[in-house]
Design goal:
540 residues, 2-enoyl-CoA Hydratase, Chain A, domain 1, 19 helices, 17 strands
Length: 540
């Protein structure tokens, strides 16, 4: 710890700390309630599905992954706030199968037969992106009626990317496996058609471009499901199926055997140590850190020391801070997390000034020089504004930081703990800057600026406009508009809204941050890490 640490009370000491914990626990309870909507999205159709002797999407995943291993579900709130079910009729995430980290994509057939809607596409595209950038195999647990036809205009054109991703993965020697449990029709038929390995369940799997009614309408031919696209036909006649499973359990067993025979090994060359220690401070105390009012600062070092490896393994200081006396509104330094060295950039006070931007750019270059992943912890209101700061070069210094973030090639992880406003979201490696993974806490808020600030700006503009016209500004009358805008921006900046739009990979309980990041770092190590020293022009 540095002597320049912000003066904040230790968790549990100040009277306000209980309020912080209670507020965070309430947010976590609300989060669990929203996530439960994804699990229960099928409603009464879940029972019908099970009556047919079929497993749900999550049950299939649970049997597929190694016993006792973790499954990191990604984007569970996709589609939140839309006309579609929370979860977007699909379950995605990273699980360990026969010791191999895999991207798992499972259609939820209890939600409109697993039909894909616009949010399903976003979710599946992001899953494919994560699999590609981290070079891990993909397992599709397939049972889908294809596109949601009422929204086909939003699905058909971009939807072809899914097939492209499958074939490109195969070309990269990144295996793709499809396990077909039920219908896989129309465009969905190309998922097994373009996978490296295909397993079909006897008397259940149905894979065809057009079902019997459409075939009769188009050609006059009369046929039935089984002879047109059944599992036995594809296993014995067409050759589309590589393995015929007698039931769902057998299909999952065969999928695990396929993964076991991939001869898969991680290609990353890391300095990960195995004798790491748990954090020196209790991660449960993360609940006490975030103020109920995000305008109130908190010391990110208190969060860092509850996330990174501790000192009991004899590895020195848990967090070695870099440039602690310069640009103190941004805390940067080196640590280990689950034995893996990382660089950390965390907002110590909301605003970023020239010193912080220059410090960040140098630190990012150093991480690239030594091929070390970076973790960004957000709580920022953006870059400083005002005449003095403009004259001192805040634009060019902020651009320097964004330049460094944009061109850095080491893996980036992002966690939005509190505020993430304006260009501060960009400089701290927001979603537009391609972090390998991005998660938010239930306390997070992201928008172009704070709701009160944005509403205030609109009032100033309206006032100046009235004065230019020689009119008297009606402040009392404008207050209703101001309140409406502030409420709208507040609602749009909440984590559920952003997660529903697939702008993050999930909203997580702060206490799970270390575990989630540990899984992500392990996944990242499937690829070699090579930093970038060729950055764009810095305006010095």
């Amino acid at each position: 710890m540095t002597t320049d640490t912000l003066e904040t009370a230790e968790p549990g000491e100040a009277p306000g700390e209980v309020t912080r914990r209670d507020a965070m626990l309430a947010k976590i309870d609300a989060l669990h309630a929203e996530q439960a909507k994804a699990v229960e999205a099928g409603g009464k159709y879940i029972a019908r599905h099970k009556e047919r002797g079929k497993l749900t999407a999550r049950e299939r995943i649970e049997l597929l992954v190694d016993e006792g291993s973790a499954f990191l579900e990604l984007m569970p709130l996709a589609g939140w706030g839309s006309d579609f079910a929370v979860g977007a009729s699909m379950v995605t995430g990273i699980g360990v199968v026969e010791g191999v980290e895999c991207m798992i994509v499972a259609n939820d057939p209890t939600v409109k037969g697993g039909a894909l809607n616009p949010w399903s596409l976003r979710k599946s595209f992001r899953a494919a992106e994560i699999a590609e950038r981290n070079f891990i195999p993909t397992i599709n647990l397939t049972e889908s009626g294809g596109a949601d036809l009422p929204t086909q205009k939003e699905i058909f054109i971009p939807g072809g990317r899914g097939f492209r991703d499958l074939t490109r993965a195969s070309a990269r020697k990144q295996p793709t496996i499809s396990v077909v449990f039920g219908n896989s029709t129309a465009g969905g038929a190309y998922v097994p058609g373009m996978s490296d390995y295909v397993i079909m369940v006897k008397e259940r799997a149905k894979v065809f471009l057009a079902g019997p009614p459409l075939v009769k309408m188009a050609t006059g031919e009369e046929t039935d499901d089984e002879s047109l696209g059944g599992a036995e036909m594809h296993s014995r006649t067409s050759g589309l199926s590589d393995f015929l499973a007698v039931d769902e359990l057998d299909a999952i067993r065969q999928a695990r055997r396929v993964v076991a025979r991939l001869n898969w090994r991680k290609k990353g060359d890391t300095d990960r140590v195995t004798d790491y220690a748990e954090p020196d401070l209790d991660p449960d105390e993360l609940l006490d850190l975030i103020p109920t009012d995000l305008k109130e600062p908190f010391d990110p070092r208190d969060a860092i020391l509850r996330i990174v490896d501790g000192t009991s393994a004899g590895n020195g200081m848990p967090f070695d801070e870099f440039k602690p006396l310069y640009g103190s509104a941004l805390c940067v330094g080196w640590a280990r997390l689950h034995g893996r060295e990382i660089g950390i950039l965390a907002n110590a006070r909301g605003v970023l000034m020239s010193e912080e931007a220059q410090k960040a750019a140098q630190f990012i270059q150093l991480a690239n020089q030594k091929d070390t992943p970076l973790l960004f912890l957000h709580n920022t209101t953006g870059y400083m504004v005002g005449k003095e700061y403009e004259q001192n070069g805040i634009i060019k210094h902020g651009a320097m930081m964004i330049n460094a973030v944009s061109n850095s090639k080491v893996p980036h992880l992002t966690v939005i703990m509190g505020a993430s406003y304006g260009a501060g979201n960009y400089g701290m490696n927001g979603r537009a800057y391609d972090p390998r993974f991005l998660f938010t806490w239930p306390s997070a808020k992201s928008s172009v600026m704070g709701p009160a600030q944005l509403a205030g700006v609109l009032e100033i503009v309206a006032r100046e406009s009235a004065e230019k016209k020689g009119e008297v500004f009606d402040a009392a009358g404008f207050q209703g508009i101001k309140d409406m805008v502030e409420a709208q921006i507040e609602e749009q900046s909440l984590p559920y809204v952003l997660s529903g739009m697939v702008y993050d990979d999930g909203v997580i309980d702060p206490r799970d941050t270390r575990t989630v990041l540990g899984i992500c770092l392990s996944v990242i190590d499937n690829q070699p890490i090579e930093g970038q020293m060729n950055f764009g022009v810095f305006r010095l």
